């Protein structure tokens, strides 16, 4: 996930699921750590997010589908897991850790909905994880000073803007209201140690795998 950059392709009438094409791109390391902390703190891993309009409240768009998935909730206390934020060149477990949380099929499902021709969808949380992995990709390749093609250089700013705003809106939509104790010695909060209510991400991943359109693993 840190050495790959997924790029989504538009679906056509003769769509056949395939693995997402990937390339290497650069960026600063602090971005991935910062984003991982925020997303984990918001409990984004268990949510099916929806886009917020810039000028009005969230409203379903034509063909909008938010299936009623029976997901249980459970109490959980966040604890720091260094593996997810480690440089994969220094920690051999980092890549495997990220790949392990992506459902088989990369979250793209076949889900026909009434009154629309739309058949294929991607579960929002997997899209959000994709955006998070994108910054991991950039951090590693920035430090490695990896050269990119002009096409990549032009694509990176657009993808960055997309991911930043998409994650912003997803976090605000989830609006995790857990109260996190301030550490007086630290003069701030870490997000660790506070009990919160989470949705069952494993059950959502299983739901997506049952309806998957490919056997792609991780963000390969």
Automatic annotation (TrEMBL):
InterPro entries: UstYa-like. The keyword Kinase does not apply. Pathway: Mycotoxin biosynthesis. One of its GO terms (molecular function) is oxidoreductase activity. The keyword DNA-binding does not apply. GO terms for biological process: mycotoxin biosynthetic process. It comes from the Eukaryota. This is Oxidase ustYa. It comes from Aspergillus violaceofuscus (strain CBS 115571).
